[in-house]
Design brief:
The protein is of the alpha/beta class. The protein contains 17 helices and eleven strands. The protein has helices at 38-49, 68-76, 94-105, 118-127, 134-145, 161-164, 170-184, 209-218, 221-224, 255-261, 289-293, 322-331, 335-357, 361-365, 368-377, 405-423, 443-448, and strands spanning 81-86, 112-115, 191-192, 206-207, 230-237, 243-247, 271-273, 276-280, 301-307, 382-388, 438-442. The strands form two sheets. Strands 1, 2, 5, 6, 7, 8, 9, 10 and 11 form a nine-stranded mixed β-sheet that branches. A two-stranded antiparallel ribbon has the order 3-4. Strand 7 and strand 8 (276-280) form a beta hairpin.
């Protein structure tokens, strides 16, 4: 029986005193007069068996699995540049617009865009608009330029018939679209000249003044030149025949630079920039991949290369098939040649690094030439994701000027589908290993393998 404290006399109040600090109860003890709980009893019994037993540590929290978006962000963070490389190809360019929309919906935005011809125009629409408006601006551009400027569109190129049109119908509709483009031009893009004029900026079948007005309306050139995104577009100097790049890292770009990149003769006239005139860059090189990956490496780079012409194709079955196959070969990218060049450059940089390692660090530090070689010898990783337009059954030699609304939608949807199929291979976005610093991936090639 526990002792009881004596009672205080009635009516007498004691002075309030602060309560002493409580001490943690020792394991195996309990407050007198209070029955031990089931948990305390089990703890007391354990303490008798093991007097030095420590309290059990809390189980570590299980980390939640990262979402697909988080994993994608982690992969992209390994790269210093995410580049979008866009070929020229006229009406086929709607495929590139679908790719841009698909990448944006996946959360992938480029830091560098490089293009030729219609790819250059896309560069302006991308870099000249904030991310949340880019796909809408591309859609506005293509909705505009797929409307004939003179006669009204045919009923089956308008809603609701357009959405109900079966793909097989394009076999007979596509030639009509091409003929209308030749005869009428395309609204907001080009119109026929009554007669070709005199001078390099007038010697053409069509006038591209409507394209300048479209670019000035849809592109914020202050934003494009702000440095938020690097832009490179290629053109050919008509006088010298040299290929040149216009780059917003080196100069301010305006509508004329993008129009020059797409001035394919004899359809479109040369565009004057400064004292020189320029034609479509596709006359020399239709894929600006080397502009992004060539020269001295500055950052690990992930490239989405969107091609509109496939070097791989079927043998022509008749004379009518020959011009189309010639275009495919002429304008297709030389990715394999670029790959070989970059591999050679990697091997050369490896030799430079080995030579530098034989020089004592104290000597390298004070030698200007060694410092220059160290910059040249830096080795970066390159990952090229290839998205290539594949011909439809109705495509022919006129596919690059089939500017009809139905063809545009088919190309756009093909681009979005190609992105979705590509991104199912999430591991393709991983940074390449040091022993293989340049890799390429192609969803069509993977399917064939």
């Amino acid at each position: 029986m526990s002792a009881r404290a004596p009672r205080r006399p009635a009516g007498r109040k004691s002075a309030a005193r602060p309560a002493p600090p409580r001490k943690a109860a020792a394991v195996g003890k309990r407050t007198p007069g209070k029955a031990a709980t089931g948990a305390e009893a089990r703890s007391n019994a354990a303490a008798k068996r093991d007097p030095v037993r420590k309290p059990r540590a809390a189980a570590p929290a299980v980390a939640e699995p990262a979402s697909a978006a988080d994993r994608l962000s982690q992969r992209l963070a390994a790269y210093g540049e995410v580049a979008l490389v866009l070929q020229g190809g006229g009406a086929l360019g709607a495929y590139q617009a679908g790719v841009v929309q698909g990448l944006a919906e996946a959360g992938i935005q480029p830091t560098w865009v490089a293009g030729i011809s219609i790819g250059a125009i896309h560069c302006a629409l991308i870099a000249g608009n904030p991310p949340q408006r880019r796909a809408a601006r591309l859609r506005e551009f293509w909705d505009r330029v797929t409307r004939p400027p003179l006669l009204p569109p045919t009923p089956w190129e308008q809603e609701p018939w357009l959405s109900l049109l079966p793909p097989e119908a394009l076999r007979w509709l596509a030639p009509l679209q091409s003929l209308r483009a030749l005869a009428e031009g395309q609204r907001g893009f080009f119109v026929p000249r009554p007669l070709p004029g005199q001078g390099p900026d007038q010697a053409s079948l069509y006038d591209t003044a409507p394209l300048r007005a479209t670019l000035e309306e849809l592109v914020d050139f202050d934003l494009l030149n702000s440095g938020a995104m690097r832009v490179s577009v290629g053109a050919v100097n008509v006088r010298t025949g040299n290929f040149e790049y216009f780059d917003n890292a080196e100069q301010r770009l305006g509508p004329e630079h993008f129009m020059a990149s797409g001035a394919l003769p004899p359809g479109f006239a040369a565009v004057r920039i400064g004292d020189e005139y320029y034609w479509d860059g596709g006359l020399v090189s239709n894929t600006p991949l080397m502009q992004v990956l060539g020269g001295r490496p500055k950052a690990n780079t992930l490239v989405f290369q969107v091609d509109l012409w496939s070097a791989l194709g079927e043998l022509p079955r008749s004379l009518l098939d020959v011009p189309g196959r010639v275009k495919d070969i002429q304008y297709s990218s030389r990715t394999r040649a670029v790959t070989d060049l970059l591999q050679q450059a990697h091997e050369q940089r490896q030799i430079l690094r080995d030579l530098l390692a034989r020089i004592p660090a104290s000597q390298r530090a004070g030698d200007a030439l060694c410092r220059e070689v160290e910059v040249m010898a830096r080795d970066m990783r390159y990952n090229v994701i290839h998205l290539i337009y594949r011909d439809k059954p109705y495509d022919g030699q006129d596919k690059d000027y089939q500017f009809g609304r139905a063809s545009m939608r088919a190309h756009w949807n093909s681009g979005m589908e190609a992105v979705q199929r590509t991104l199912r291979h999430a591991e393709w976005l991983d940074l390449p290993p040091a022993e293989q610093p340049f890799v390429t991936h192609d969803v069509h090639r993977a399917a064939e393998d």
